[in-house]
Amino acid sequence: MTALLSDPAASRAVLIGIPTYAEDSRLAQLPAVERNLAALRDALCDDSVWGLAPASCQVLGGEVDGVEVMRAIEAAVHEATDTLLVYYAGHGLLHPDRPTELHLALHHSNEHQMWRALPYAHIRDEVRSAHRRHGLKCAMVLDCCFSGAAVEGGMSSRETLLKQAADIDGVCVLTSSAATEVAYSLADEELSAFTGALLGLLRTGVPDAGPVLDFGTVHARMHQMLSTREHPQHPQIGAHNSGERIAVFRNPAYDDPKTREAGRSTEASGPLPATRLFGRDRELRELAAEASRGPGVLVIHGPPGVGKSALAAELYQRLTGGRAGHPSADFPLVLLDDVTDAAELSRLDASARDALIVVTSRASLTAEMPQMPHHVRRYALAPLEMADAVALLQDISGLTGHDGELAKIAELLSCFPLALRPIAARLRRTPPDLLLDAMRESDRPLQHLHTDDDRVRTAFTVSYEALNDQQRQVLQDCAGHPGPDFDRHSAAALCRLPPGICGLMLEELVDVGLLQRANGRYAFHDLYRSYSRTAPEAEVQRRTSLYLHLRRRLGPAGEDGARTAWRAAALGELRAAARAARADRWNLATELSCDVADALHEEQRTEEAREEAEAALRYATDRGDGTGSARARAALARLGAQSGPVPPADRGATRQDVAAELVRAAEAAPGGAAERGRRLMALAERALAADLVDEAMRFQAEAHSCVAAADDEALLAECLVGEAALRIYAGQHPDAVEPAQTAARLLDDRGDQEGAAHAHATAAEALRKGGSFTAARHHAALALERFETVDDPAGLGYAYRLIAKIEWALGDHAHARRLMHKAHELRRGSAAEEGPSTQSIAHPSSRAIRTGHRESPAPMESICTVPEPPGA
Predict the structure, then answer these.
(1) Torsion sign over Cα 857, 859, 864, 867
(2) Which of 332, 535, 548, 628 has its CB 3.0 to 4.6 Å from that of 355, i.e. a possible disulfide?
């Protein structure tokens, strides 16, 4: 890796600077730019720096127009045979309708009429042509900011910096600031911050960097100098075809006892680390191990602002012998920063094929890389660990202590170095508690810290602009998810897309660093979520679909291992969704909260379950929702019974409260007979779930009266089966037979085989428990026949077990064993669940009973679990 000084006699430079702007442009005047031009021209023409002839360095300023600029560059291209250097200082503008198009402001330019400015694409195309047609080495230096001015002296009023500034083959482009910050020209300084630092560097040089300074070395040292200032800047470099090794500056710090001719080949040290790294020791060890495998492509990828460039620069130093204790690699190295497309690597010249090409990119570049014979290795870079993020804040700010407040600041910034560094500089003059409060009180954590907000927002915007419309929509929709993470099914509910297609979109967002994935679940970096949000009203509408989806998935898990695993992984999402549903005033928020409480209880997280149930009760009470209050109180009653011994007085008070709420809910039930009957049946189930048998029986009786008046046979049959189940539960077995048999006749007449099967099974259970075994066997056989007709393996298994118990009671033990064997064989040979309990057969409308997971003691167990006969 060598760097040669460009021949000044065969090179040309064009320096463009716009210090003044028309009054109607509304662009700030930049008097430092005029001084920039004079000082840089003097330096380039100084023999100790480069030695360019004055006639070879053209300066354009004042009211120069775009045609004059392009003619000057064209003339320089035709005159040069070695290197072309183009410098611009002034305002950078972005097209309001096409924000990926950069324009360089001229005297009469403004932010709204882009035809008055010089499109950067014109210079880019001319320089590309110069490299392609004439073989010139080309370097561009842009001292302008493309983000909004946040403090007095900022050099632009737009929000975004575009990496397209470096999108030129075979050249090097050095910009004055990162993709997310302003370039400063402060009123009390002679030169702009970037150009002043560059000229200072040319006076002092870089120790141990060889006799010349290539642009890679200049960039690294400039980054180091400017990033730690009160108003930090982070210069960027874009280089292709070894453009970073272009050198137009001698190094005054070079001291070699041997006399060397200027321009003799020397070993260049490569890019220096831009900033001190925190907490990257493990990453550097792992990357060094990957690099030791030899030539190929090593892609360091991750979200914008995570610190890829700084890490790659440090790795480069270690691999080229620039760090003590780290021997240099025995193969060439190429460092490419911020590559957006795998196809860019195909433009590397043939000599790079035997090199290790270290690439940084926001995407993992999984597409095929043309002409890359070596293995491609990828390394995903995560944000800093919390302890390292706090150490970074303390080191730059000079603060001691305040660990708690700094940790909370780092958490709000997702531990991204991009956001941490400027905030650390701000902490030098702002108390951490005040800064933390300001960040918490904003929709975005940096919203009121304009420069820092622009920096992060623009980093996000560059990636966002590269997405297609559907990817953008998925990103925006998912940003409204209230939880810490989600799976593709939840995302599909928010986006209203099929889960498969939505999953593909999510993977593409992961690949470009805008989402992170772990164990099949997706999450935002919190810092970026706030920049993806849409209007609150639209988010509430989308979340309604999410709430409905989660309620459907929160059905009983039973022996479904996949659903059980999902429930355990989704508890954070579920709790957040319940909170958001209450905040959104969703009409079923109480039900969702109680469902979540049940899920937490089943996962043995009793305290969290109680918190959700209490929140559901507060929400329902606030809304005057008697039905919701009853369900929440029932959930609390169940949890209270589980959490330890409850004094009899407290238990009685709880039962009274629940009963009172249920009564109020019944009084508030709709007036239509059928609808009122359904609501009363639901209240009966909730009363039973709270072990309030008397109230449940009363509600069921009222429901029977309403349903009978509605003249709806199907609903009447369901009501009768529910009544029979309640009587079985209460031990009133003879009284349960008649409603069950009536329901069976109604359902048989209607041809409802499945419903009739359940009704006959209920009648059989009531008769069996009442000691009428022959009649019980008749109804059980009818239930078995109908379960066979509807091909219900779960129901068949139950029917075999029920008949086996009846046959055992009748003394036919051999037949009972054969039936139990059939039930077990059916269970093993079917992917269906084990089969319903007796109570689920008896009362199919009751979700609480159908789950088979009850917290109330013995009476229900007498229905749902009948002891197996000896030896069965």
Answers:
(1) positive
(2) 332
Which residues on adjacent β-strands are paired with residue 568?
A: none
Nearest to 216 by CA among 184, 191, 248: 248
Torsion of CA 561, 563, 569, 570, to 10 degrees: -170
Burial of 611 (0-12, 13-18, 19+ CB in 10 A): middle
Structure tokens at 811: 């003394």
Average pLDDT value for the chain: 77
Nearest to 271 by CA among 339, 198, 220: 220
CB atoms within 10 A of CB 342: 21
Q: What is the mean pLDDT of residues 21-30?
A: 84
3-state secondary structure 585-617: CCCCHHHHHHHHHHHHHHCCCHHHHHHHHHHHH
Burial code of 464-498, b = ≥16 C-beta within 10 A, e = fewer? bebbeeebbbbbbbbbbbbbebbbbbbbbbbbebe
- Please say whether the beta carbons of 470 and 498 come within 8 A: no
Q: Is 751 left (phi over 0), alpha (psi -120 to 50) or beta?
A: left
Letter for the amino acid at 645?
Answer: P
Question: Are the CB atoms for 725 and 762 separated by under 8 Å?
Answer: yes
pTM above 0.70, yes or no: no
Q: Using CA atoms, how far apart are residues 86 and 13, in angstroms rounded to an integer?
A: 6
Write out the two tokens for 765: 């259970």
For residue 11, CA distances in Å to 56, 217, 357 come to 7, 21, 29
> Which residues 6+ apart lie within 8 Å of 656 measured at CB?
none
Instruction: Note the pLDDT tens digit of each residue in 802-827.
Output: 898 998 888 888 888 888 888 877 76
Place of tokens 């369900």: 631
Residue with tokens 């600031």: 177
Distance CA 83, CA 580 (A): 61
H or E, element range at 236 = strand 236-239
How far is 116 from 109, CA to CA, in rounded Å? 5
Handedness of CA 494, 497, 500, 503 (dihedral sign): negative
Closest CA relative to residue 726, chosen from 677, 679, 757, 689: 689
DSSP letter at 831 equals S
- At residue 642's C-alpha, the angle toward residues 641 and 646, to 5°, is 40
Partnered with residue 289 across adjacent β-strands are none
- Give residues with Cβ within 8 angstroms of 743, minimum separation 6: 716, 717, 718, 720, 721, 724, 755, 759, 762
- Structure confidence at residue 430 (pLDDT): 83
- Distance CA(37)–CA(53), nearest Å, equals 16
| Count of other CB atoms within 10 angstroms of residue 356 | 24
% of the chain with per-residue pLDDT over 90 = 19
Token duo for residue 744? 């069976």
Cα distance between residue 428 and residue 376, in whole Å: 43
Taking CA atoms, 799 is separated from 62, 103, 133, 264, 401, in Å, by 95, 79, 86, 94, 70
pLDDT in tens, 511-547: 888 888 888 899 988 777 877 777 777 788 888 899 9
Relative orientation angle of helices 713-729 and 693-710, to the nearest 10 degrees: 160
φ, ψ at 446 (rounded to 5°): -115, 15
Radius of gyration of the chain (CA): 37
Left (φ > 0), alpha (ψ -120 to 50) or beta: where does 711 sit?
Answer: left
H/E element, 172: strand 171-175
Contact 234/184 with Cβ under 8 angstroms?
no
Torsional class of 279: left (φ above 0), alpha (ψ -120 to 50), beta (otherwise): left
CB 353 within 8 A of CB 374: yes
